[in-house]
Design goal:
Blueprint: E1 7-10, H1 20-35, E2 39-42, H2 56-66, H3 90-102, E3 106-109, H4 134-143, E4 148-151, E5 158-163, E6 167-172, E7 180-182, H5 190-200, E8 205-209, H6 216-226, E9 232-236, E10 239-242, E11 248-250, H7 260-265, H8 270-278, H9 294-300, E12 311-312, H10 315-328, H11 331-342, H12 347-351, H13 353-361, H14 370-378, H15 397-412, H16 421-435, H17 439-451, H18 460-467, H19 469-485
Parallel strand pairs: 1-2, 8-9, 10-12
Antiparallel strand pairs: 3-4, 4-7, 5-6, 10-11
Helix pairs in contact: 1-9, 5-6, 8-10, 11-13, 15-19, 16-18, 17-18, 17-19, 18-19
């Protein structure tokens, strides 16, 4: 490996599930690494044991796999930098924390955590132990008194660092608390462990959320204390959600599904979700393309395309992208994947599922819409005479009642073995021509009588074929009876 080799990382805490913002961070880090022939690392930052969720690591790994974001190094994969799980690197953090004390950039703090040591204009620790005499420190250590190790922040001046999206960012040092680096139980804090690991794992570009902008000066001071070269920082603008009043706020569960897993359960394809998430704050500069394979995303991705403005999560746009992915699927693949969302079906619909799925394929934005789309095929909707009003085809309820009997008679004569769309269409076309009536009128009446709703996936003969002969004739006769009662 050379110093110029791009190395990025995704370093989630296993304290919950993969929010869309987390997924986007992982995706951009992956795309940037792959676009530059670099390495993408997965590191689990599990030092916050109080918030640890037992199955979260497995969930994170499964989510990345489903999104086709494949780490080159990480837990279960390995790499040349030891464990990629922070709780398994405790000796490393202790070594580097004590080294920082020797460098004069950190100190032992023996204060009782139950005592109030907050003070100052910006709050935080009052620095009681910052300048303890060495003999006092030695006595505490000899007695085995518990301690934390705190970073010794400069009391004056400013800390400035460069961010690719936001330019130079400067924080007055007086605003920086002497933060804890190593806790009493030996666990490192996030602000310490991530710096040590990023340096030891040779991470060159740190891509993460904008919420870390104000923490980064603390990290920069740590790099400088050790004499280490700074990585490149890229802090991503947040993902926002639309509120009912038209305003936007940070994406949360009140806006709907906010995790990759939730969206998959709603019936969005993993690759469509990944495609859409890539466009939440990134724009390919050279094309108006919106549908990308993973390889195409890698080929097009660059930091120049990132926006420093917040992105708004748009379910309509996600639905459109997902619909485009549906259209690209083979009929067989779509039918197979969609079947689980249809639930238990009557025997006639189960037998016709492949035909029905083909009709649904270009109408859906997600698999989760299937139950509502096919509900009319399972239970005939309540009779609505207004559906028979159609000016274009000159249909009225009276006209429907007049023409239905003769066409029901025609359909009764069809053998069950011939009950399919092609045969029904050819037969009805022939009978319509012989009767001298408009094809649009007859097909409208038959479709409304069988379906009981205005908009359907498929025309009259397709609906009849899917319902089967017995169910179709039963529905047509019920509708006729209602029309005749008027």
């Amino acid at each position: 490996m050379t110093e110029k080799t791009v190395r990025t990382r995704f370093a989630p805490s296993p304290t919950g599930y993969m929010h869309i913002g987390n997924l986007r961070t992982a995706l951009y880090a992956y795309l940037f690494a792959k676009a530059n022939n670099g390495t993408f690392i997965l590191r689990i930052e599990d030092t916050d044991r109080a918030r640890y969720v037992a199955d979260a690591v497995d969930f994170i790994e499964r989510t990345l796999a489903a999104a086709k974001i494949i780490p080159d190094e990480g837990p279960g994969i390995g790499g040349e930098y030891g464990s990629y799980v922070q709780s398994e690197r405790m000796d490393i953090y202790k070594e580097y924390a004590e080294k920082l004390v020797k460098l004069g950039a950190a100190y032992y703090c023996f204060c009782d955590p139950d005592e109030d040591h907050s003070t100052g204009k910006f709050g935080g620790y009052d620095r009681t132990c910052r300048d303890l005499p060495q003999d006092v420190i030695d006595k505490h250590l000899k007695n085995g008194d518990p301690y934390v190790i705190r970073q010794k922040m400069p009391l004056t001046g400013e800390t400035t660092y460069f961010d690719v999206l936001h330019g130079n960012i400067t924080i007055p040092n007086e605003e920086l608390e002497d933060q804890v680096l190593l806790k009493r139980d030996g666990m490192p804090t996030y602000n310490f462990a991530n710096v040590i690991d990023d340096h030891l794992m040779h991470v060159t570009h740190i891509i993460r959320g904008a919420e870390f902008i104000t923490s980064t000066p603390k990290h920069v001071l740590l790099y400088q204390s050790y004499g280490w070269e700074l990585p490149t920082f890229i802090h991503l603008a947040p993902v926002m959600g639309k509120n009912e009043d038209g305003s936007v706020s940070k994406l949360s569960k009140r806006h709907g599904a906010t995790s990759f897993d939730d969206l998959v359960k709603m019936g969005y394809l993993p690759e469509a979700i990944t495609n859409y998430v890539a466009l939440l704050g990134w724009n390919p500069k050279t094309t108006n393309q919106e549908i990308f394979s993973m390889d195409e995303l890698i080929g097009a991705f660059s930091l120049d395309g990132l926006s420093k403005s917040p992105a708004v999560f748009d379910y309509d746009k996600l639905g459109w992208i997902n619909g485009e992915y549906f259209k690209k699927m083979t009929d067989e693949a779509f039918a197979k994947e969609a079947r689980a969302y249809a639930g238990d079906l009557p025997a006639n619909l189960d037998a016709s599922w492949s035909t029905l799925a083909t009709l649904l394929k270009t109408r859906l934005q997600r698999f989760g819409e299937i139950p509502q789309e096919i509900a009319f095929l399972i239970d005939q909707p309540a009779f609505d005479a207004s559906l028979y009003q159609n000016k274009r085809n000159k249909v009225t309820p009276e006209k429907a009642a007049e023409i239905l009997p003769s066409f029901i008679e025609v359909l009764e004569g069809v053998d069950t073995s011939d009950w399919n769309n092609d045969h029904l269409y050819a037969l009805l076309e022939e009978k319509i021509a012989a009767a001298g009536v408009k094809k649009g009128l007859v097909m409208w009446v038959l479709r409304i009588a069988a379906a009981g709703q205005k908009v359907t996936p498929g025309g009259a003969t397709e609906i009849l074929a899917i319902l089967g002969k017995d169910e179709s004739l039963s529905r047509l006769k019920k509708s006729l009876a209602k029309l005749q009662e008027m």
